[in-house]
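Morning F.,

Quick status update on the modeling queue. The single chain you submitted on Monday has been processed. Sequence for confirmation:
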Amino acid sequence: YTHPDCKLHEMGEWHPESPQRLQAIEDQLISSRISQLLDYRDVPNVAEASLVAAIERVHSPEAIELVRANALALAKSGVAHYPLDADTFLNKYSWQAALRAVSAALTATDAVIAGELDNAFCSVRPPGHHATSAAPMGFCMFNNVAIAARHALEVHGLERVAIIDFDVHHGNGTEQAFLDDPRALMVSFFQHPFYPFSGIEAAPAHIINVPVPAYSGGDVVRKLVTEQWLPALHAHQPQMLFISAGFDAHREDDMGQMSLVEADYAWITQQMTQVAKQYAQGRIVSCLEGGYHLSALGRSVVAHLKVLAELE
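Structure tokens below.
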């Protein structure tokens, strides 16, 4: 799932979270010769009121209005950007793009639960896993994965879901959203100490945070997935998996200092698809989070999608 609206949001030519990220993914899918094997779907134009109602399951009305009102004000004023924090900005298309990203996650969730698709990847931006209930932050407007997971629980009546986050940064917004909701198991690793400097506090049993030091590579990650993630996932027996698919832990991505490669992302995805097949009828919705070295991002998404689409 993707849509041109997601390329309209931009935060300045200098900003690493750029529209070129989605183009780099598209280019790599073509050059890898798997694009013709994938089912491409545009994100539908869902009614704004319906999307806002879904967003409100995770975010406060004030946080939603902060994005909406200031993006619309930019359209009238002609000013290029509005700062939400030191590194998160709106332009006049940001509300439109953020709604489309949420719509992608919700539409993918509906299609997968209906059995129309086995799984889905949402190539969308802005990303989401840092957005808290009260405020956008860390390049994120609304928490696409958290909204989709809450939709699966509240609208579709699932009893247990799992959220897998392999971004180099801790998904603080996702953890906050489900801190008191054991229906959602969250497993993550992330570089520490590093932005947003969270995820190291004591957490309930359904939040599995694994901080790792800079320069950690695939051996470290495969060990923690095997020893910490998988036992928790098997105990939880999720009926659907949601993936916050950040690829900025890649060794070529200077946003962080971890050392993963494409094969590591493929391996992680394989472990998650096996869990999904065992407990969740194979149901997975994956949403793009970070990943800022354009070539490494594109190659890593290809590796991720080859496993999801069973092309390897």
